[in-house]
Design goal:
The chain has 550 residues and is of the alpha/beta class. 56% of the residues lie in helices and 19% in strands. Among the domains are: 191 residues, P-loop containing nucleotide triphosphate hydrolases (Rossmann fold, 3-Layer(aba) Sandwich); 162 residues, no CATH class. Helix 5 runs antiparallel to helix 11 and helix 16 packs across helix 17. The relative contact order is 0.13. GO terms for molecular function: ATP binding.
């Protein structure tokens, strides 16, 4: 319930602060006094879009703050889900800056408007006459009957399973489409894979083969140069080895005469050892080198196969071909894997369908049992409101499809007059009838579920006399289970309030302002008398006002 509201610099309100009690409160005032301004300010707290034109003084910010007692609303999970600090007395503040920017806070934590709107759904229901069309909405009709049927726990369980069901159906569709795509490519992929496997590729193989090919393809030229090099190295008179040995012998003779000569001797000795080793390798290479046309042909075939594969797959290396081979292998294997996954998903879908059907059946049975209870209660309340012949025919039809709240389709049929045929509520009920039906619905719901604070904004338009008296009684009865506000022009309803607030205009420093005041008992008598007879209050109006209050 809302416990207090403060408004600064909003429309015609300069500064206003008011506290509210539980139970039934009425708000009255002349047309244009500022009742709509009050609702507008409350709407901002509940997350409506801000407008810079709302500022009374365009150079100062507007602040609207509301305190709510939410201890009995089971909202801790909402606060945890939105990372907000929970307080039994929660404070919502809205600020509109002169720049036009708007800020919102829940318990001093900045929030966006979506979060504020989500929370407001649990706090206040502002109901005006034009909102009666909501009764024509299937979702609202189901909420009404499910409240009487106490179905919300079942629907919560059903919704969770339905979410899993839809997720699995979507996954099944995706896997099935993938399987069909893979199957279409299966033969081609298998061919490509077998072709790559037949190549027996190895990382680095291409480079090794290319080296071997060049060696075998130029064997005569290589042999010629190796032999020539060996001859130059081993020639008896002018060979490099013989000359190095002569140089070494010469420096060996003079090495002891100087450190420099000794160093040169050692270096020449090292060169001789190294060149001797080079000569042995040249000799070995020459001996092992021979022409092999068959091996050359095999290497050439393997290289041409690799080049063909690279061209086909548009790559430049064996490693890239191996990667493609691995992908193709996965695709070929994935058919079996996909078929197994699809079978598992199909089995899960069958199991959860059984569970959904069982829960949906329970929901339907509860609804079917609640229908006569709801229609009888609505008829009884509407009879008090001057609709003695009003009848409802609520039809539930079980369908094959899984809807968001079960498998039922609903039709709210209504007949206002004796002998009249039933018709869809939205087509046969007038605006005044819809207002009274909505009041009856809210009255019934207040007996079955913890509704948020409700504000009836001139829902009594078009009624008077005894009907107005009964509407007031119903609102007062509702206030036993919830906080109820009624903005009204009818004295019969104003007299039923536990608290009575008056909205009025005053002029201060040549500026018109709207103010809100909690009336005392004597002030209530005068206010109601004015509502009965106008600005000139007669004795009979005063007596009538006292009777209404008593």
């Amino acid at each position: 319930m809302i416990t207090s509201l403060s408004i600064e610099n909003f429309a015609l309100i300069e500064k206003l602060s008011v506290s509210f009690s539980d139970g039934f409160s009425v708000i009255t005032g002349e047309t244009g006094a500022g009742k709509s301004i009050l609702l507008g300010a409350l709407g901002l707290v509940l997350g409506k879009r801000a407008d810079l034109n709302s500022l009374k003084n365009k150079e100062e910010k507007c602040i609207i703050e509301a305190h709510f007692q939410i201890k009995n609303y089971n909202l801790k999970s909402f606060f945890e889900a939105n990372d907000l600090d929970y307080e039994d007395e929660t404070i919502i503040r809205r600020e509109i800056l002169p720049s036009g920017k708007s800020r919102a806070f829940i318990n001093d934590t900045p929030v966006n408007l979506n979060e504020l709107q989500d929370l407001s759904n649990y706090l206040i229901d502002i109901h005006s006459q034009h909102q009666t069309q909501e009764l024509s909405d299937d979702g609202v009709q189901f909420q009404i009957i499910d409240s009487v049927a106490s179905n919300f726990d079942l629907i919560s369980d059903y919704s969770f399973k339905l979410k899993e069901y839809k997720k699995s159906k979507s996954n099944l569709k995706s896997k099935s489409e993938l399987l069909q795509s893979v199957l279409k490519e299966q033969d081609y992929n298998t061919f490509l894979l077998e072709e790559l496997l037949s190549a027996n590729l190895k990382s680095g193989e291409q480079e090794e083969l290319e080296v071997q090919y060049e060696k075998l393809n130029n064997v005569e030229f290589i042999k010629e140069n190796l032999v020539k090099s060996l001859a130059l190295a081993n020639e008896e008179q002018i060979g490099v080895l013989e000359n190095l040995k002569e140089i070494k012998l010469s420096f060996q003779k003079i090495a002891n005469f100087s450190p420099e000569y000794n160093q040169l001797f050692e270096r020449i000795s090292s060169v001789l050892i190294e060149f001797d080793d080079v000569e042995k390798e040249l000799s070995q290479l020459s001996e092992n080198l021979f022409s092999d046309p068959e091996e050359l042909d095999l290497i050439n075939q393997k290289l041409q196969f690799i080049y063909t594969l690279q061209k086909k797959h548009q790559v430049n290396s064996v490693d890239e071909l191996l990667s493609i081979q691995n992908d193709l292998d996965n695709k070929v294997v994935s058919v079996t894997t996909l078929e197994s996954e699809i079978a598992t998903i199909e089995k899960f879908i069958q199991e959860i369908e059984v569970q959904l059907n069982e829960i949906a059946l329970k929901i339907h049975k509860n609804r079917a049992e609640a229908v006569p209870v709801l229609t009888d209660k609505l008829a009884a309340i509407l009879e008090q409101l001057g609709m003695a012949n009003a009848r409802f025919n609520i039809q539930l039809t079980v369908k094959e499809e899984f809807y968001s709240n079960g498998k039922d389709e609903i039709q709210f049929l209504f007949s206002a007059n004796k002998g009249s045929d039933f018709g869809l509520l939205k087509k046969v009920a007038s605006g005044g009838e819809m207002s009274r039906i909505m009041l009856a619905v809210k009255s019934v719901l207040s007996q079955y579920s913890k509704l948020p604070t409700i504000i009836f904004d001139e829902i009594d338009t078009g009624v008077s006399g005894e009907i107005a008296h009964k509407m007031g009684e119903i609102m007062k009865s509702m206030s036993e289970n919830m906080q109820v506000f009624a903005i009204t022009h009818l004295p019969q309803i104003a007299g039923k309030g536990k608290d009575h607030f008056k909205v009025y205009k005053v002029i201060k420093e040549n500026q018109t302002q709207s103010e809100l005041k909690l009336l005392s008992n004597d002030e209530r008598v005068i206010e109601i008398a004015q509502m009965l007879s106008g600005s000139t209050i007669s004795d009979s109006a005063l007596n009538h006002a006292k009777e209404l209050l008593n």
